[in-house]
Structures are given as C-alpha cells and as structure tokens.
Amino acid sequence: MSDDVLRTSSDLKRSFGGYDEMAELVASLGRHVDTINGHHTSSVGGDPLSVTYLGQIREPTQGLAELVEVIRKTLRLTGHKGTAVSDTFTAGEDDALAEAQNW
Q1: 25-52 pLDDT tens trace
Q2: What is the pLDDT of residue 5?
Q3: Above 70 in pLDDT, residue 16?
Q4: Residue 81 to residue 92: CA distance in whole angstroms
Q5: d(CA 52, CA 44)
Q6: Residue 15, C-beta contacts closer than 8 angstroms, at least 6 positions apart
Q7: Which residue segment(s) compose the domain that 70 sits in?
Q8: Could you tell me if 19 and 79 are in contact, meaning their C-beta atoms sit under 8 angstroms apart?
Q9: Nearest in space to 87 (alpha carbons), one of 4, 20, 8, 5
Q10: In a domain, 76, yes or no
Q11: Quick one: 23 exposed, middle or buried, by C-beta within 10 A (0-12, 13-18, 19+)?
C-alpha cells in the first residue's frame, strides 16, 4: 500500500456537528454580555464617579463582547467548513466506489 493515502475518520461529519452547538452556546454568552453592558449604561448616574466608572468599564466589556463574537463566528465557520469537507470526502468515496464497480 502506498504511503500517499489520505485517511479520514468515519465519524468526521458528526465531529464537526458539535461546533454548531458550541457556537450557539457562545452566542448565548454574547447575549448575556450585551445585557450586562446595557445594565451598566442604564444604571450609571450623571455624577463624576459614575461617569468615571462607566468610562473604565465600557472599553473592557465592549472588548469582551467583540471577542465572544469572534469566537462564535470562528466556531460556526469551523462547523460549516468541516461539514462541507466531510461531504466532499463522502462524495469522493461514493464516486470511487461507483467507478470501481463499473470497471
């Protein structure tokens, strides 16, 4: 047997299916972060201490929200692309089997 053989897991498609679930969990986390950010903004008064607090907390919590969104998109993309690759491998196996049977 040649060393130039590409091998894939038989449960490749199922493996990538978990990424969609993880993306949904991260999306839920993102909604909670947005809620917290909204509460911070709406509950802060107009006094100097409150304004200073909001100024210090806004940037990190916005950064957290952006990070969570990047993670969600990456997980979603990994799931979609991984499923597409799995489908391509399956189609290749089916085509190879059909060609072998016709030979």
Answers
A1: 999 999 999 999 888 888 888 888 888 8
A2: 64
A3: yes
A4: 16
A5: 10
A6: 9, 82
A7: 15-102
A8: yes
A9: 8
A10: yes
A11: buried
Residue 87 neighbours by CB under 8 Å, 6+ apart: 13
The structure tokens listed for 93 are: 């196996």
Q: For residues 65 and 27, what is the distance between their CA atoms, to the nearest angstrom?
A: 10
> How many domains are there within the chain?
1
**pTM attached to this predicted model:** 0.72
Contact 78, 19 (CB under 8 A): yes
Q: Residue 42: inside a domain, yes or no?
A: yes
pLDDT of residue 90: 80
Question: Tokens 């897991």 belong to which residue?
Answer: 9
CB 76 within 8 A of CB 19: yes
Quote the mean pLDDT of the chain: 86
Q: Is residue 74 part of a domain?
A: yes
Domain contains 1? no
Burial class of 13 by CB neighbour count within 10 A (0 to 12, 13 to 18, 19+):
middle
Q: Is the pLDDT of residue 65 over 90?
A: yes
